[in-house]
Amino acid sequence: MKRKDFSALSIQTQNEKISYFEHEDFIAGTAPFLRGIDATMFLKKPLITQLLVNFSSPEKSNTFIKEHISLGYKAVILDIKTFPEATSGILIESVDDMKLLLREIPLKELSITLTTKNAILTVLSLFIAATKQLGIVQESLTLSINYNYKNAIINTEFHQNIIESILKYSKKHLPNFNTISISATLPKNKKTVETELAYFLAETYENITNCISKGMTIDSIAPKISFNCSIEDNHFLEISKMRAARFLWAKMINQFNPKQQQSLALKIHALQNFNNSHKVLSVFLGDAQSVISNINTVLLIENETAITKTVDSWAGSTFVEKTTEEISKNMWALFNELLNNGGFSKNINLTLNTENQKEFSLELMIEAAEKNAAINELNSF
User: Fold this and answer.
1) According to the model, what pLDDT value does residue 103 have?
2) From the CB of residue 303, how many other CB atoms can be counted at a distance below 10 Å?
3) At 50, is the secondary structure helix, strand, or coil?
4) CA distances from 320 to 196, 242, 259, 278, 286 (A)
5) Which of 46, 69, 103, 210 has its CA 20 to 30 A from that of 361?
6) Which residues of the chain, if any, have pLDDT below 70?
7) How far apart are CA 335 and CA 198, in angstroms?
8) What are the residue ranges of helices labelled H in the chain?
9) Helix (H) or strand (E) holding 145
10) Half-sphere exposure of 117 (CA within 13 A, CB side)
11) Residue 93 vs residues 136, 348, 375: alpha-carbon distances, Å
12) β-sheet bridge partners, residue 181
């Protein structure tokens, strides 16, 4: 077969970009953090691989955790259910059940995230009570909470002060408390990248406003809140979404006049259980902080590619920059529309009884848990 002669082929290159976007002037490690919350991103703070644990049996979950600690996992998500009829999760009905789950696990060496479809304060009180009875110093715990609005529904009523109570208790007793990772709550059939971000910001805005009304400062609230980001199949859309999320978080928080730049830096966690490298790659390229995945998948990307040695790998791409701009503009308009129409609670049909809103005491719940109070009794505190 005769080869085609390419010796006279002329190759021309274009030295100038087709377009330029205003937000391209921003850099990583400084507000508004569009390109990442650290100046060197994964070189300084590697992506955290989280281990999801949700076997129904506390004993089986305990064994599973121990086996995987030896494989290198340092971050564990405990998916807890407090009622047998719940569809998934580790069944914990007392502080003794929680002690079975945590028995002989080196909690001082791990980062623990609690997640549940039930009342989060009940789960947290059982966890704290169990660690105290196991002789673990609270100051040594590195703890996070995965939160959605259903976690604040106790005895069929929505209680807006749940995040406030967690932040106040952690400030007093848990100096290494990491973050409350908020999942975006959406009305049915309304999921787009814009609605996910807008409802996340609207929900967070409502909780921040409530906390500030109770005497807390924005700099004691914002650094402790993060975004539990869903990751779908559209690779570049998800990357652009995470960039836009950091950008608009800083824009929203700036309205509260923070004194610390850290308050403007949004941490992003991908707390779905990913078994394929495609979505984990999106998490890396979007410069998130943690992912639930097989640790070998994460190590493969870290060791066999150069993307962890770069900051904001897709920066300058006309398509990604244009998509970031479009998401930012559309989402900010939707966010303001939500605020102007009653805010997050009204738009997902939550009824807030602000006059008779109960102030839960996490400390009293922990004391009751230590005395083996029943779940229904804990929910009454």
Assistant:
1) 96
2) 8
3) strand
4) 18, 11, 32, 17, 11
5) 103
6) 1-2, 6-7, 10-19, 350-358, 381
7) 5
8) 58-69, 95-102, 120-133, 162-173, 193-213, 218-221, 235-253, 277-285, 295-304, 318-340, 343-347, 362-370, 375-378
9) strand 142-147
10) 11
11) 21, 30, 6
12) 146, 226
Distance CA 229, CA 244 (A): 12
**Cα angle value 24/28/32 (rounded, 5°):** 70
Q: pLDDT for 20-48, tens place per residue?
A: 788 888 999 999 999 999 999 999 899 99
Whether the CB-CB separation of 237 and 24 falls below 8 Å is answered with no
pTM of the predicted model, to two decimals?
0.91
Q: Which two tokens stand for residue 173?
A: 């007793």
> What is the 8-class DSSP label of residue 268?
E
CA distance 121 to 131: 15
Q: Residue 196 is encoded by which pair of tokens?
A: 């996910």
Q: 154: which strand partners?
A: 157
Element (H, E) at 18: none
pLDDT of 142 = 97
**Tokens encoding 9:** 């082929």
- Which residue type is seen at 133? Q
Structure tokens at 41: 């991103």
Q: Provide the Cα torsion 323, 324, 327, 333; round to 10°.
A: -130
